Amino acid sequence: MVKKSLVSPPSNPNRVDKHLAPWFTEECRHARRHFRSTARAKGRTSVEAAQAFQDYRATCRAASLTFAASLPDMLKYRPREFWHWVNYAPR
Predict the structure, then answer these.
(1) Is-contact 24 63, C-beta < 8 A?
(2) Where are the alpha helices (H) located in 43-78, listed in sequence order?
(3) Staple partner for 74: which of 21, 32, 60, 82, CB 3.0–4.6 Å?
(4) How far is residue 32's CA from residue 14's CA, in Å, rounded to a whole number?
């Protein structure tokens, strides 16, 4: 007997594959890299690591808001790119 297994995507795919999100820019990558290196060097509970994490979160939040704000403009002036992100963006 063969069992059928269902593979469902995660409820929040950006939590698992945030690097695939269209708003995750080079600035976000740099901030994440800085946070991880600081956490390794100083320890996760250090003040420097906490500040680096806050900077990382702020950078990602700003990038996400910038991308979200550009979507209506993208729909109007670059519809092909807009529908690419809607239809083919990793989920």
Answers:
(1) yes
(2) 47-77
(3) 82
(4) 14
Q: In which residue are the tokens 């269209």 written?
A: 22
The Cα 11–Cα 22 span in angstroms is 18
pLDDT digits (tens, 9 = 90+) for 2-60: 677 676 665 665 555 656 678 888 999 999 999 999 999 999 999 999 999 999 999 99
Residues 36-51: tens digit of each pLDDT? 999 999 999 999 999 9
For the beta carbon of residue 56, count every other beta carbon within 10 angstroms.
20
